[in-house]
Amino acid sequence: MTGKSQVCSIWVGSETGILKGVSLAKKQAFNFCEMNSLSRDQEVCMLCWGDAQETEVLVGCANGAVKTFSTEKGIFTESRQCGDSAQGKFTGLAVTDSSLVTCVESGLLKIWKEGSTDTVEINAGSSVCRMKQNTSQRHHVATGGKETPLKVWDLERPDTPIFTAKNVRNDWLDLRVPEWIRDLAFIPDSEKIVTCTGHHQVRVYDPASPQRRPVMEAQFGEYPLTALSLPSTPGSVVVGNTQGQMAVLDLRKGLVRGCLKGLAGAVRGLQCHPTLPLVASCGLDRFLRIHSLEDRALQHKVYLKSRLNCVLLSSRDLEACPPATDAEQEVKEEDGVGDEVWDTMETVTEKAKKRRLEEKANGAGKKTSTKKKKAVKK
After folding, report:
1. Which of 206, 107, 111, 225 lies closest to 165, judged by CA?
2. Whole-prediction pTM value?
3. Beta carbons of 225 and 217 less than 8 angstroms apart
4. What residues does 46 pair with on adjacent strands?
5. Among residues 159, 160, 124, which one has the least CA distance to residue 144?
6. Distance CA 125, CA 122 (A)
7. 296-333 burial: b if 16+ Cβ within 10 Å, else e
8. Which CB contacts under 8 angstroms, 24+ apart, belong to 48-53?
9. How many angstroms separate the Cα of 154 from the Cα of each of 25, 87, 138, 140, 162?
10. Tens place of pLDDT per residue across the chain (378 aa)
11. How distant, in Å, are the alpha carbons of 45, 47, 240, 348, 350 from that of 357?
C-alpha cells in the first residue's frame, strides 16, 4: 500500500469510515481502512494535514478518535481518543507547533499538548458547526454555529475570545435575524473572515474595524449553504449548498461571478487548490469533482461508492495531473471485477427461450381468435 498512498493527490473521507485516496495522474482510487474493525462509528468527519510536508493526514472520526495516516507508509500509524461520541462529531481539526486542536458539536474546544496528558478546554458555545485555523497566525482559530456567533480565539490566551461578532440588525418587521454559521475561512494577508450561513448568506467580518457586524453581506440561492473555500486568487469565494449548487461570489461587490454545474446532491466538502485555479467538491451523490475556476468547466469526475463528508487536497501532485478528455470520465477503483472474470462466465440464454415461448403463445392466441370470428360469421 506504500506506493499507492504516495501517488494519491486527493484524500476524501466517507460516511462508512473509509479514507479514500485518489490519483488523477494514474486514474485510480484506493481505500485505506482497517477492515477488521470497520463500523459506522468510524465515520470520517474531518481531515487535515498533520505536518507542513504533507506526509501525515489527521482523520477525525465520529467516535471521537483522531487517527494519523502516513502517506509515505500507506498505513495508520497512530490513534488517540480525543473526544466522546456523546459530545457530538468533530467540527474542526488543527495543528499548531506543539499541539493538536479539536472542536466538537457541543462547543468543547480542546488543546492537546504534545507529550502531555493535560489539556486546555474552551467553551466556544453550543451547536458549533465549524472551527477553522488561521494559516498565517496558527495560534488563532475561529468558531461559529447555530445561534452561536463568530468568535476568534487566541490559543495562547484562551480565557476569552479576542473577537466576538455582533448579529445584524433586525429585519423590516423589527424581528431578530437568526444566526447559523455553517462554514468559515480566514482571508489570507488580512484579518478578515468570511462565513456562509444556513440562511443562504455570505458575510465578511473585519476584526480590525470598529464595528463587530459584517462589513459585507451577499446571498446565493434559496437553500442553506454548507461549505465554502477561498481560491488562490484573492477577491472571491466558492460556496456550495444543500441542493448541489456551487457558485463563485465576488467578495468586493457581493455578486455571483458564475456557477459550477454538474452536481446532483448536497455539497459537504469543498476545498480550493492553494496555487492552481481548481476546486474540489464532494457530497451525498458519492462523486468527487474537480472544477476549473477559470472557465468553470468540469475537469474530473470520480465515483467513490460512498457518501462523502470532506476532502483534502495536496499541493505537490495535482499540478502534474493531465486534464480528463471526457468530463464524464469515472475513475474505477482497483478492487473492481476485471474483464477476464466476465469472459469465463457462462452465457445465460433463459431470456431468449422465454421470448420464443411468448411468441408461440401469441401466435396460438391469434389463430384461436380468427377461428372464433369465422364461427360467428357463419
Report:
1. 206
2. 0.81
3. no
4. 60
5. 124
6. 9
7. bebbbbbebebbbbbbbbbeebbeebeebeeeeeebeb
8. 48/93, 48/94, 48/95, 48/312, 49/95, 49/312, 50/95, 51/95
9. 40, 23, 9, 5, 7
10. 556 777 788 999 999 999 999 988 888 899 998 777 778 889 999 999 999 889 999 999 999 999 999 998 889 999 999 988 889 999 999 999 889 999 999 999 999 988 777 889 999 998 999 999 999 999 999 999 999 999 999 999 999 999 999 999 999 999 999 999 999 999 998 889 999 999 999 999 999 999 999 999 999 999 999 999 999 999 999 999 999 999 999 999 999 999 999 999 999 999 999 999 999 999 999 999 999 999 999 999 999 999 999 999 998 655 454 444 443 344 444 444 344 544 555 555 555 556 666 776 676 555 555 554 555 454
11. 55, 58, 54, 16, 11
Question: Phi-psi bin for 242: left (phi > 0), alpha (psi -120 to 50), beta?
Answer: alpha
**Nearest partner of 99 among 45, 50, 135, 148, judged by Cα:** 50
- DSSP for 229-256, please give it: E--SSSSEEEEEETTS-EEEEETTT--E
Amino acid identity at 296: R
CA atoms lying within 13 Å on the CB side of residue 332: 6
* Residue 243, burial from CB neighbour count under 10 angstroms (0-12, 13-18, 19+): middle
Helix, strand counts (H, E) of the chain: 3, 28
Handedness of CA 251, 256, 259, 265 (dihedral sign): positive
Cell of 178: 437568526
Cα–Cα distance, 193 to 200 (Å, whole number): 17
